[in-house]
Amino acid sequence: MNRRSWKVLTIFVLLSFLLSGCYYFSAKKEIANAEKLLSELKGAGGETLTPYEYCSAEKFLEMSKTELSEENDGKTAKGFAERSKSGSEVGLAEVKKKK
Questions:
Q1: 6 within domain boundaries
Q2: Would you give the distance in Å from CA 27 to the centre of its chain?
Q3: Nearest-angstrom CA–CA distance, 11 and 21
Q4: CA 50 to CA 92: how far, in whole Å?
Q5: What is the Cα–Cα distance from 81 to 45, expressed in whole angstroms?
Q6: What is the mean pLDDT of the segment spanning 29-42?
Q7: Counted domains in the chain
Q8: Distance between CA 77 and CA 27 in Å, rounded?
Q9: CA of 43: how far to CAs of 3, 13, 47, 68, 91, in Å?
Q10: Is 86 exposed, middle or buried (0-12, 13-18, 19+ CB in 10 A)?
C-alpha cells in the first residue's frame, strides 16, 4: 500500500472511533435527563394518576440502560431514552391537568 492509502485508512479508523464515542456520551446524557424527568413524575404522583405514562417511561428507561450497558448500542439507547423522556413529559402534563 502506498502512503496515501495508509493516510485514508487511518483517517477512516479515527473517524469511526470518534463517531461511536459520540453516541455513547449523548446516550448517557439522555438517560440522565430521562431519569430526572421520571423521578419528577414519580414525585408528582404519576404512578397512581398516570400509570400508563409512568410505566411506559420506566420501561423505556430500563431498555435504554440495557442497550447501553449490555449491547453497547448508543444510538438505540439514546432513542429509548428519548421515548422515556417523552412519556414522562406527557405524564407530568396529565398530572398537572388533574390537580
A1: no
A2: 5
A3: 15
A4: 8
A5: 21
A6: 96
A7: 1
A8: 6
A9: 61, 46, 9, 26, 12
A10: middle
Q: In this structure, is the dihedral angle defined by the CA atoms of residues 34, 40, 42 and 48, taken in order, positive or negative?
A: negative
The chain-wide mean pLDDT, for the chain, equals 89
| Rounded alpha-carbon distances, angstroms, from residue 10 to 1, 6, 57 | 13, 6, 41
Task: Quote the CA–CA distance of 41 and 22 in Å, as a whole number.
Answer: 29
The three cell numbers of residue 64 are 435504554
Residue 75, domain extent: 22-98
Question: Taking residues 55-65, what's their average pLDDT?
Answer: 96
Per-residue pLDDT at 73: 84
Q: Which is nearest to 28 in space by CA: 83, 81, 85?
A: 81
User: Is residue 64 in some structural domain?
Assistant: yes
Q: Is the pTM of this model over 0.85?
A: no
* Cβ atoms 39, 91 nearer than 8 A: no
